[in-house]
Amino acid sequence: MLSKKLLIGFAALAMGIASAASDYKLELTQATQVGGTALKAGTYKVEMQGDKAVFKSGKDVVAQSSAKVENGEKKYSATAVSTNASKLESIAIGGTTMKIVLTQ
Fold it and tell me: What residues make up the domain containing 52?
């Protein structure tokens, strides 16, 4: 009985940590297109919500796009974006092995 409670406690803790770590700060240095929405240069918070990347400015949702998470072999030293013709393609999350790939 104690082991079940302990297991449930660890599962709840792990889920709490995972959900707390699902938003990331992103600074865009130039206007960038995300899922049909033009974002001005500035600081945004990116959250993964299921299979979507949601971009927020303050508490307001300003853009969203379908996305998937990929894990690399090495940690990225800094957060970096990859664009093609001003369209955001991916975000490498600094300090992690995680990359958010937009699947527009």
Answer: 23-102
